[in-house]
Fold this sequence. Notes:
The complex is a heterodimer of chains A (112) and B (111).
Chain A: E1 5-7, E2 10-13, E3 19-24, E4 31-38, E5 42-50, E6 53-57, E7 64-68, E8 74-78, E9 87-94, E10 102-103, E11 107-111
Chain B: E1 4-7, E2 10-14, E3 19-25, E4 32-37, E5 43-49, E6 55-58, E7 61-66, E8 71-76, E9 85-92, E10 99-101, E11 105-110
Amino acid sequence: KAGVTQTPRYLIKTRGQQVTLSCSPISGHRSVSWYQQTPGQGLQFLFEYFSETQRNKGNFPGRFSGRQFSNSRSEMNVSTLELGDSALYLCASSLPADTEAFFGQGTRLTVV
Amino acid sequence: ELKVEQNPLFLSMQEGKNYTIYCNYSTTSDRLYWYRQDPGKSLESLFVLLSNGAVKQEGRLMASLDTKARLSTLHITAAVHDLSATYFCAGTMEYGNKLVFGAGTILRVKS
């Protein structure tokens, strides 16, 4: 059974650029959540999508956005990158019944 | 707003010893999760605790949940080096899968 797949695994971007990260959930999982992990702030919730609708949102600026497609794959976009956006971005998927959340390997974003 | 606090934040243990990581949360949480993270890796799900008094065990790790005290514990029995990792607890309070994580406990098991 394939796990949660995130692409790309590593990214280096320049301040001011934008970036799109992708997450393919486990087959049959319709909920996809995104988290940012940094040494200073720890693991912070960004947003959750369920059946193509944003169901929950964390306390991040509008530069962070996401979407979910009909096949449950999700993308998150960060515009006008700042140095502080450098982080490990993790995606998690779960079944509709809000049970266990399985995490992907993450995308490590470095902003220079 | 749900807040999750773990302690200790750093734990250095000798192999063969027992210890407990504590996870306190501020308001009612529907579920309590424990995850393990190795350096540079993603989060591996260890336990999901759904109800008061729930106890789950896997190998040398045992997790429990006391919803009245708003406390979950992760007990490590006879630690081995392979258990060295960072352990996170997380709770949820809203509809859906918004996880609120503790700061994590860095566990180092010394031989």
